[in-house]
Amino acid sequence: MSKAKVGVSMLFCLNEPFNRMVKRLSKMGTRYIEIVDDGIQELNKQRVITLKETAKSYGLEYSLHAPSQISTLPPHQETC
Fold first, then answer.
1. Cβ contacts of residue 16 below 8 Å, gap of 6+?
2. Residue 26 is part of which domain span?
3. pLDDT tens digit string along 13-68?
């Protein structure tokens, strides 16, 4: 049986500037980090480069939390 990988979501600092969130990454106490792609922390090319460099420096692995703005699912229809 494999061990669970415990990580930290950066949702708690969603209202902070991106550079402040990046500084926190090395202090999380885990290598598994969920990055938020929304609001003032929305990712762009330069931010992705920064995250990759930070991951390499500290041995981090990311997952992405990206809230969907557009629903591609059909509206819910009840059947009786």
1. 40, 41
2. 18-65
3. 989 999 999 999 999 889 999 998 888 888 999 999 999 999 999 999 999 888 76
Structure-token match 């494999």, residue found: 2
**DSSP letter for each residue of 37-67:** -SGGG---HHHHHHHHHHHHHHT-EEEEE--
Q: How far apart are CA 63 and CA 6, in angstroms?
A: 12
Contact 50, 23 (CB under 8 A): no
Residue 74 falls within a domain, yes or no?
A: no
- 54 located within any domain: yes
Q: Which residues contact 62 (CB under 8 A, 6 or more apart)?
A: 33, 34, 35, 51, 55
The answer to whether the beta carbons of residues 54 and 25 sit under 8 Å apart is yes
What's the number of domains the chain is made of?
1
